[in-house]
Amino acid sequence: MKPGLAIGQYYPSDSIVHNADPRIKILLVAAYALAVFFIGNFTGFAVIGVMLGGLVILGGLAIGLVLRGIRPLFVILAFTLLVQLFTGGEPWALIGPLKISIPGFKTGMFLDLRLILLVIGASLLTLTTTPVALTDALEYLLSPLKRVGVPSHELAMMMTIAMRFIPILSAEADKIIKAQAARGARFDSRNPVTRARSFMPILVPLFVGVFRRADDLAEVMEARAYRGGKGRTRMRELKMKPGDWFGFAVVMLLLAGMVWVGRMPVI
Question: C-alpha angle 242/244/256, rounded to 5°?
Answer without folding.
Answer: 120
